[in-house]
Amino acid sequence: GSKYYQKQIDKNELFKVNTIADLRNFNGYYEGQEISLLGYYNSGDKPPLNYKFTIVDFDTKIDDGGSIIKSSRGLWVAQFGNEINSSDFGAFDENHGDSTSKLQKLYDFAILNNKKINITHLHYITSSIKLNRSAEESRIATITTTGNNVGGFIKYNGGFVFDSDNTDTSDFIFTSLRLMLFGDSVLINGDNIIRVRIENTHLVWGGFIHAPNRWLQSIRIKNNTVRNNTIPVVFFNHCFDSTFSDNVIEWGTTFIESNQTVKKVSEFKQDCAGIRIENNCIEGLKDTPIKLGRIVGGSIKGNFFESNIVSNLSNIDLSFSGL
């Protein structure tokens, strides 16, 4: 079992340790003792974070590298505010290797505890972060991921940054991220993706959001810059009540594509209802910018098109505005 060391100390004294390894090697002297962690791998490599010591549930709690750190005799429990830095779970830049497992632990904790996530570095990942959250379970909380124009994700081997095993994935906000998604990688993939916002984000090579088997609903993709995308930025089977506005899409392939796109009008199925594609700048694409089946309601207006290649039209350049 767990127990405290015996030592007389001033309870007002705030101990400090330099690294996460130091914290694991330090046992608290009393229940609730607080300590300041000054870095993760090295002192000062991330903002300081306080932890409190307890022996409660020592045998059942798991060290996740961020919210709970186990010493030999007890637990150090992170004192997070409303926001968690990805570096608090040991996720740093590409020089520190693959961050997938660290980010998975971060997201599992954030989803359970309704925390905002601050992506502090350009994280290298090799597999997907699973978003195990259904719409029925998430009506009261939104998980916000922000890179503050610095942090984001780099993926070389295709697949998805975020992937969902659930029927419904909902209530996520991605803002101010840097995305380098090589190998046809996609930021978020799922079956039914509901109430997701992607804003003020810079993407190169890959795509934002794909629901190839089912639908998107109440999606907002706004004020983003996309360059050299090798796959559609947005791809779906059906789409409802969604807005794609004020984006700059340059030098890649298709911006928005429906999986229901067919050649014969008689074969069109209703795949878009209340879709709004407005005020985007779409330039230099190597394929048809927007590929949709039948649209019911919504609007396509105020967009600017220049020097886009329309497939199946003898490679005629498409340059016009106001649509």
Structure in words:
It is built from 2 helices and 29 strands. The protein is elongated. A hairpin with a 4-residue loop joins strand 4 and strand 5 (75-78). Helix content is 6%, strand content 43%. It is mostly beta strands and 323 residues long. The N and C termini lie far apart (70 Å).
Low-confidence stretches: 314-322
- Structural class, from secondary structure content? mainly beta
Helical percent range? under 10%
Give the overall pLDDT as a whole number: 88
Record field, number of beta strands: 29
Rg estimate, integer Å: 23 Å
Strand content: 35-45%
Shape: elongated
Distance between the termini: 70 Å
Largest sheet: 15 strands, parallel
Please give the count of helices.
Answer: 2
